[in-house]
Amino acid sequence: MSVNIGISLLQLAVNVIELFVWFFLISVFLYFKENHKKKIACFLAVYLILYIVERIFPQILLFNLAVSIYSRFVIYILYRGKLLHKFFAFWISNCLNYVLDMFIISIVSTGFDGNLFFSSMQEMNSKLIVTLTKLLLIALICVLFKRLVSPSTLKIEIMSNSHTLLLAMLPIFGYVTMCVLDYGVRTYIKVPFSVNLFLIITYLATIIYNIVVMVLIDKLVLNRRYKLMNDISQEQLLIQFNHYESLKEKIEQNKKLKHDMKNHMLCIEALISNNALEEAKKLLSSIEGIMQESDLEISSGNSIVDAILNEKSKLAKQHGIRFLFEGVLPQDSFISPIDISTIFSNALDNAIEAAQQDDNSNRFVETTIKIRGKCLLILIENSVKQDISIKDNTIETTKDNKGKHGFGLRNIRDSVEKYGGDFNISCRDKSFTLEIMLSISA
Predict the structure, then answer these.
(1) Where do the Sensor histidine kinase NatK-like C-terminal domain residues begin and end (predicted)?
(2) What are 9-55's pLDDT values in tens digits?
(3) I want to staple 153 with a disulfide (CB 3.0 to 4.6 A). Which of 187, 218, 321, 395 is the partner?
(4) Can you give the pTM of this predicted structure?
(5) For position 377, which CATH number holds?
């Protein structure tokens, strides 16, 4: 009895480790949703219940099927992304898992008469050895990936279609190659040394090939990211240059106004003395207009944000979009210039572009900044042509330039999360809202 319980616990441990390996492989290609740790804990609890039921009632033969269906359901609710993205991630992870298994099994089998893995006497022991060896191999691959690959470049959500297809074909090619070689070597082809040794070399080469191609994909994605970052940086520099040129012009206007103000006042006094009130009013109105022109349209308390807001305000007005701003940013610089520029530039670009597509004459973009205790709330709201479907805090882009749009949203999210902030989007009654919460004491 105790032996059976020990074997059952060992089997459970092996299965749980395999599940965590599976979760890890999928997480290389997909982002977890919020509160994913709680969902994983719930999944393991349900899995434990199913396992106990299967052990108590062994005549029930649907345990593996139930776990398989439930596991796929968990993938759907645990990870962010479209259904197609999840399908790709699931397929790629399964193929990679198979490649690792076959490599380790061949190593374990070498040196024994027959195949140790499929020996009924040693099945549990061999599975444990394979699982523990896989853990070590996964740990080694993790260390290698941390040195060679960026943490987000292999995420299908932000990859182009061509990179995603290449990534999907990579393990499929390895899977097919290994199956063909395994069957061919064992059935038809004679090699001058051990078959298992030949297969070990083949499987190892396949693993190395997969890693090399993933690193290459990482470099391709990084190059595309750096190019987009360079484009955004150039755009931001141009905005700031135009803003400073505008400031220079307004300073010159203020100097001229100050220089001429004494003469203007003398003229007004003379006009009033001669009862030429209408002419005096016209002159005052003209002076007021000059003073308004010399003032900045929008002032937030931050020179970089001022440059962005004033530039985007001009762009919005050119397209007949009402542009409103309310609020003041904190004086203390708790967020880096590049991050605050990334947040406002990308958010306002998306807002103006969405408002442009709205046929309604009352198109608008509203930016509100509020300080609540130690928190800074940034609300950017804009009109849209129709309500946008939002799932898992992600929208499906309708832009032709899909890569740049997705990259912009990803950049906003990254900049916000860097400071431990919250990023939320919603859409209701043809009004899209981006809400950002940051800690001022960050």
Answers:
(1) 336-438
(2) 777 777 777 777 777 888 877 877 777 778 888 888 887 887 777 77
(3) 218
(4) 0.54
(5) 3.30.565.10
